[in-house]
Amino acid sequence: MSEHVDTHLQELRRGTVVLACLQLLRTPGYGYALLEQLEQRGFATDANTLYPLLRRLEKQGFLTSEWNTEDTRPRKFYATSADGLRLADTLCREWTSLSAAIASLPTEPRPSADHPGPSEEH
Predict the structure, then answer these.
(1) pLDDT tens digits for 20-52?
(2) CATH 1.10.10.10 is right for the domain spanning 3-94
(3) GO terms for molecular function, please (predicted)?
């Protein structure tokens, strides 16, 4: 695909990754496992995008975190906060509304001037 198409696809996907993280982290998880879950569900994201996003959502109060030091390697576990759950619910409702609005858009080409549409017939 062209560079322009890739840019638009990236913009379209950006907000969906936020919603996907909030939904997946209803069950606490750490970054690498979250990357794998996102990819399995079709939200391909790289670590350079995900970790800053997690920090930003935590700073905004939509995620909480705590370190698990019981394993050999300490891991920071994230979980969706109460505010994050409310945000996820709002984003889901908006996504459903936008999906319906997009589905209502025409997908067929407009009739040309030579071939008037039903409302333009004489």
Answers:
(1) 999 999 999 999 999 999 999 999 899 999 999
(2) yes
(3) DNA binding
